[in-house]
Amino acid sequence: MSTFAKIPATIVTGFLGAGKTTLIRHILETARGRRLALVINEFGDVGVDGDILRACGVENCPEENIVELANGCLCCTVADDFAPAIEALLAHPNRPEHIIIETSGLALPKPLVKAFEWPTIRPHLTVDGVIAVVDGPAVAAGRFADDLDAIAKERAETLAIDHDNPLEEVFEDQLLCADLIVLNKTDLLSAEEEAQVTEQIRATAPRAVKLLYASEGRLDPAILLGLGAAAEDDLANRPSHHDTEEDHDHDDFESFIVEIAAARDPTELIERLARVAEAHDVLRMKGFVEIAGKPMRLLVQGVGARFRHQFDRPWRADENRASRLVVIGEKGLDRAGVTAMLTS
Ligand SMILES: Nc1nc2c(ncn2[C@@H]2O[C@H](COP(=O)(O)OP(=O)(O)OP(=O)(O)O)[C@@H](O)[C@H]2O)c(=O)[nH]1
Prior knowledge:
The chain is of the alpha/beta class. It has helices at residues 20-30, 48-54, 78-91, 109-114, 136-140, 148-157, 166-176, 191-204, 221-224, 266-280, 335-343; strands spanning 7-14, 36-41, 66-69, 98-102, 125-135, 180-184, 210-213, 253-260, 284-290, 296-303, 306-314, 323-330.
């Protein structure tokens, strides 16, 4: 079968909280007329991203076309999770015209591109493009590079870079695999910071990959979809730290779920969560919380200590109003300490 007969799939990668779900939501809301399907992979399962995207209620991406795979890492579970999910989407009477795959923020995307060589997938699907969403303020704050000069020097000497900081490794892998890079959250960057982040991206992604700037992932789907990269045929140009690792189990990071009591007030809750994130260097915290006396559930999202919240929908009558937060951090995160602060 020729590439043209294949269904294009766009892989959206990017570090925890960079804005992948926000960008995909924008595509859903603006790519009218194109039948879409979504495959979402989360690290630390509370199904927040799936819920946000389902809540869009977009006609050309009905609920049955939104598949959540909660098994940590898509690329490691191709046979068990990813391939069957894709096969099920392909078996729909109304096949999707384009599939969007959101990787977990900790995924190294190349192994997922490799999954497109899987015998039940390859004849039907092609990787239209890998889009790497970059969290502008996080890069500007130096989250992904402890020592830029040392990295540049090491890169000049050898292709394989040994990072002390696992965040750098994930960030670098995502850029090295990209066909398009979106520098997101420009609303939070000064002109100088934007220039500095651009320089760091350019230094990290040596291929001539197009870089776009965005706020809230607001880019025209006509630019994001239809890149025609056939990335699965171009794996050699996408070096990955995964290439040199026997195993790949994200053991540099950990996540857990904390159930908290209903909160009295959103502002007080968010201040408390931000204090916890700050005190324990939490990378990402998100979930739905009950606010006493309110019929709506509160969606809370933290990237580092920066939080956003909104009432997203009423609790359903048959729903357990548990307030559950997924907490993600680097290995060694003080679970007991975080839990104690969240539940006290
Ligand atoms: N200020 C600002 N906030 C943004 C922007 N894009 C996304 N956010 C917020 O950043 C947080 C994370 O955004 P998501 O779209 O959930 O990020 P993600 O990459 O899907 O996160 P994970 O799936 O957890 O890795 C949310 O609170 C968003 O509202 C932006 O351009 N500017």
